[in-house]
Request: fold
Amino acid sequence: MTGISLHSNKSSAGFTLVELMASVVISLVILAGVVQSVLASKSMYMMQEEMARIQENSRFALDVLTTDIRMAGYTSCGGSATVTNVIMDTDDWDNGYPGIYGLEGGIDSIPSSFTNPLADQDIVVVRSGDTDIRMKVSNHAHGIASIDAVDGHEVDSGAIMIIANASCQNIGLFRGAGVSVDEVSHAIGLGNCYQNLTFGGSCSSAPVGLGSAYGPGSTVIPMNIRAFYIATNGEGVPSLFMKPVAADGSSDREELVEGVEGMQLSYGVDTDTNGEVDRFQIASDVADWDSVKAVRVQLLMRSIGTLNGGDISVDFNGHNYTDRHLRQVVSSTVMLRNL
Reply:
């Protein structure tokens, strides 16, 4: 009887060393391609995210600046009124008038009250009447340094106030204090050089007599004073800051928009008093701030994070910025409605 073999005639075979090495190399090449694609996608995503943030921040920063600058010099009346300014020390940046005032970075001396300002960046100060608070005068007698008002509000001692008569022929700027909710004082002791609010001058020109009274129909509004400048925040990121001035002269800064690295402003000046801009000048060249009719704003926006790859070079205001941050220059020109 013939036996049946249980072994196959075909021999079993495995991978040779050469085949294993070839498959490993092919796998590494494929893996490298996948990694490179993921890194490229991540880099593109980061760039798009940073660019979107720059665009969002630039829109907000320009909106804040242009809205405030556009209201510079607002007094509730037009620009043809006779203005009497009895506020003492009106040369200070945080005091008095005119409606717009600038400091040229790298040229003008920057007050020490500005914390960590970036070098060579401009500062703009905007002064305007408050559009949300309006008190109506019920009585204002000659020779008495107090104004009776209805719809009154609490007025902090030393607050800068604007009073305008019903015909808008006279406007007075003074430091006030709330004697009561319905009474505002403009006494000399509050920081005013005169009690007269209608002589059409300032502390450098002495008034004649006690002046006219602001009768019923006149209005009193507080003045807002805000300075805008560029500084680094607590994380070392350059940002746009605002310094609002309180009645006691204090001004704590408020961070508005991060990623603003530079600000340059030029001022459209009316040199022939025809109401139109004749030339744009930097702040240090402006001789008469009452002649400014427009402001041109340029901002250098910067990404918060750095990007992969090489350095990126951008020029702004004569400086070259070269690193791995993404940057963009944005600008806007604002016509001043009240000056």
Observations:
- The mean pLDDT is 86.
